[in-house]
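Internal ticket #5521
Category: modeling
Description: The requester needs a full-assembly model to guide mutagenesis choices. All entity lines are attached below as received. Residue total reported by intake: 544.
Assigned to: D.W.
Attached entities:
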Amino acid sequence: MATTSSLEGPTPPAQSKSWTLRLRQAIDRHLPMDHLLPDRQPYYVGSWVYVFGVVTIAALVWVVVSGIVLAFFGPQWWHDSRVGRFFNSLHFWSVQLFFIFMVLHLWGQYFMAGWRSGRAATWMIGVVIFAVSILTAFTGYLSQQNFDAQFIAINAKDAMNAAGIGVFFNVLNFGQMYGLHIMLLPIGVTILVVLHIVMVRTRGVVKPIDPEGGVRP
Amino acid sequence: MKSMGATQDEYYRGVHMVPYDLVKELFLALAGVGLLALLAAVILSSPDVAPVTIANWAQSDPVDFVTTATNELAGASTSAAYGNPYNTVGPGQSWGPIAPQKWFGTRIPVDSTNAFVIQPLQRASFSNTDLGSALTTWQGASSDQQTKWLDAYSKALPNATVTDGKVTVADGDYGPLPVMMSNLLGVAQAGGLDGLLVINGRFYQTDYTQPLLFMGDGSYLAGLAADLHLTGSLWGMMNETGSYPGQTWLWLYTMWYQVPPFTSSEGFLGLNSSNADLGIIILMTLLTAALALVPLIPILRDIPRWIPIHRLIWRQYYAPRKAAART
């Protein structure tokens, strides 16, 4: 029987057995709201290099929004409809911008040695996002249902088969490529990007390279 | 090595902080990038060259179609001799003991002779007695006899003529092959083969393995790709039809196909043009892993310290007066 109950209910102990409470405490400890949505930042965060991360996220938003419209109307729609062609074009150019910004972000972080002071995992997740994004775009090119998709499929099968991947990832199977492109891979990229952002916000931006210091993680 | 410290607050202790609006920055980025994408979409549109059908192929280049079908029947096409995952005829690519193509077996079986030639002809022979008797003759002949007909027909095809879409070869002993190939060509030109190879015994179907393999065995599709600058020798996979950017992020992967040892028959350390696909996939896997592990790899992680690009990025921090003023 609880002995500390009141109208508001029992006061939870500091070391609660409640998973919910422990999760909330961990979030409060590692990622309080003023770190997740900061209104102040170090004075040295003044370069345009810092913009590449946020514009990559912005491009991803447009990729997803235009992709949702295309997925809703089906893979054939954009070949026969001017509106569909417009949304395909929006999707196409958003993807191009996404990769341009992501590569600039990657090189920027490399030359800033952004993995220092406990940020190695953030860098590694970033590289995984890059790799999964390439796979997602590849399945998109295979799902175009045009000549480019045909020729890419016929050629890519040799590399996939040589590596033994073709057995599970048949680039000649439109249904499999389309399903991966509009569902599993975008979900994977989005989850990884959210994780990456949480890691960045948890640690904050890295300090400038100290001439006396190293560049170890 | 500087550690992060227990909290972000500790990490930034003593660092001058300035006002910042993350949400505003995100909205401005969304608007700016959205405007860029919108302008590009409206002004430049996007590439969409229509796909090639087997009917297009059979109508545009009937000799190449018949030559490819004859090769399929002879078991001499790329698909017929491919190996896993389609069949066990070819050895597949390997590098020393590394042979993943062999390890995973025949998981997507394709019998190109039957799937691309015999079965479509059997369906077409349902109301065609001439074709039915030609097929009976073919299937009743000995293997040696079939080979003699195929050899003679294959040698005659390079000099074949086309009249009204029909392929004619010089007189010779080809057995039932001219009747069989003429009917297969007719079915293909009418669009029947496109359907037959996709349906593959089902109603709903999204798997184009068979028609793409068949078209890939011919020269017609590769010729169109060469005209559109899509072939491997022209950095293939990263190109796109027209003047549009393709998968430019695959430049490094595609580059390896343009340089030794992957362009050479002799190669280096067992890697050469015959196992280039496997070698390049292994190489790219290692390079991707190295990129992910840069923070742990000496020299690679030291380059940012040696090349002072960071001094441009953080010039405010490194400017002696300003730094002195803030410390």
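Resolution: model delivered.
Comment from assignee: The longest helix of chain B spans residues 22-44.
Ticket closed.
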